[in-house]
Amino acid sequence: MIAGRDSRAILSTNCGLEGDSVTKRILMRAAKSPFEVIPPATLLRRNMIGRNSGNLIFSHAAHRALEVAEAEVVAGGLHWRPGQARRINEEFDVFVVPLANAFRLSFEKELKALTAMISKLDIPVVVLGVGAQGSHKHGATPLKPIAPSVKAFVGAVLDRSATIGVRGEFTAEYLSELGFSDIETIGCPSMFMNGTRLHVSKKVPRLDAESKVAINITPYRKRMGSVLKRHLPKYPNLTYVAQDELTLRRLVKGDKLIVRPTTRASEIPAHTSHIAYRDKKVRFFIDVGPWLSFMAQQDFSFGTRIHGNMAALMAGTPAFVFTHDWRTLELAQYFEIPHSRMRDLKRIDAAELHAGADYSRLNNGHRARLRTYLDFIERNGLDHIWSSGEERTNFDERLAAIEFPPAVGG
Question: Which residue among 108, 179, 242, 393 sits deepest, i.e. has the most Cβ atoms within 10 Å of its Cβ?
Fold first, then answer.
C-alpha cells in the first residue's frame, strides 16, 4: 500500500486538468497531494504525515515548484516496495524524492525499502534535500551502523541522477566521508515555496502581553515543558502549534492511549489535562495553506521544530529555532535563521529572543540560495515554475478553489 491507499489506483491516476498538454509525469514521494482534503481521523489511520506534519510543508513546496504547465505531479505516498517499479517505469518519467532526516537509525528499514525500489527504476530519480541526523556531541559517529544502507541508497540515486541534493554542510561532509562527490547543498524546498518573495521583518518593536506568539515543541525535549509553562501566563495569546502524531491523536480521540501518572505530571503537553489543552491553546494543522495563513497572523514563533519555524518565516513572521541536533542545526545555519542551542541559553524568554534576532542575513542571502536550488533542479532535468517568472500559477489557482478545514483544536 502507498500511504494506506491502493498503489495501483495511485499510479494510474491522472491529476492534470482537462485540456492540459502534459509532456512529463512526475511521481513524488509525498504523503498526500496538496489538493486533497482529508479528515484528521483518516489521516491518522493512514499515517499520512509520517508522524510529523512538518513533512507536509517540504513536499507541498516541492510540488508547487515542479507543477509547470507541461508537467503533472502525482503524490504517491511515503512507503515503497520493489514490486511497484514496473508500473512506475511504465507510467512516469521521473521519480522525485523530497526527504528530511532520512539518514538515521530509526529510518533504516524505510531507506532499504526505498533503495530496493529505486534500484529497479529505469527513469531518473531526483532527491531534494536529504539530511543526516547527527548529534551535537557525537557528530555522525552514531550513524556508523547504517553506513552500508546509506551507501546503497545514495549509489542507487546517483546511478539515476546528476547529483543528490542535501540539506546542509553536515550531511554533505558525511556523504563525502562515505566516498561520494556528486553532492550539492541545497537546503530544504520549504524555504523556496514562494520563490524570491521571502522577506522577514519584525512586525512589532517588542513583544508584550498582547502579542501573538506561537511556540513549537519536540515532545522529547523536556526543557520545553517548563518554557511553555512560564510563557502561557505571560503571553495570553500564545498558541502551541503541534506537529507530532500523538498530539493529533489526542485532539481527535482524547487520551485513549495509556497515560501513566508520570506523564500527567510532565510539563510537556503530553496529556489532555495539561493546561495548554484545557485552555484550548493547542493547534494542529493538516493542510499547509491554513498553517501558513495562521503563522502570517502571529508576531513571533519559537521552539525546537525546524519546519514549524520555517512555516512562520515563509509567512513573513520572525522566528527563532532551538537546535538540538545536526538535522536542525545544519538547516538553521544554511538559511541563516536566528538560532541557538537550548543548553547555551540560561534563560529563555520570547521577548528577549525576538529583540535579539536579526533577519538581514536570511533576507539578503535568499536569492543566491534560491538560485542554487533552481540550478540543482535544472541540472537534474526538471523544469520549474520560475523559468517563466513568478506570476500566479496553475497550482495556486487550484489551491485557492479548495476550502480547507481550520486547524484541529481550533
Answer: 242
Domain with CATH 3.40.50 in the chain: 213-362
- The C-alpha angle with vertex 297 and arms to 295 and 298, in degrees rounded to 5, equals 70
Helices 326-335 and 169-177, packing angle to 10 deg: 120
| Alpha-carbon dihedral sign for residues 235, 313, 3, 74 | positive
Predicted TM-score (pTM) of the model is: 0.91
Q: Which residue spans within 41-143 are E strands per DSSP?
A: 71-75, 94-98, 125-128
How far out from the chain centre does Cα 112 lie? 21
Task: Kindly report the number of other CB atoms within 10 A of residue 55's CB atom.
Answer: 22
Q: Which of 96, 95, 159, 169 is nearest to 131 (CA)?
A: 169
Q: What is the CATH number of domain 213-362?
A: 3.40.50
Using left for φ > 0, alpha for ψ between -120 and 50, and beta otherwise, residue 384 falls in beta
| Grid cell listed for 52 | 510529523
Q: What's the order of all strands across the beta sheet hosting 24-28?
A: 71-75, 24-28, 94-98, 125-128
Interhelix angle 306-314/326-335, rounded to 10 degrees, is 20
Helix (H) / strand (E) element for 375: namely helix 366-379
For residue 173 the three cell numbers come to 561532509
Could you state, in chain order, the average pLDDT of each consecutive group of 10 residues for the chain (410 residues)?
36 42 87 94 89 94 94 94 96 97 95 98 97 85 96 98 96 97 97 95 97 96 93 97 95 72 70 94 97 98 97 98 92 98 88 98 98 97 86 87 92
Give kind and range of the element (H or E) at residue 301. strand 300-303
HSE on the CB side for 173, CA within 13 Å? 10
**Torsional sign, CA 306, 26, 153, 366:** negative
**139, HSE (Cβ side, Cα atoms, 13 Å):** 9
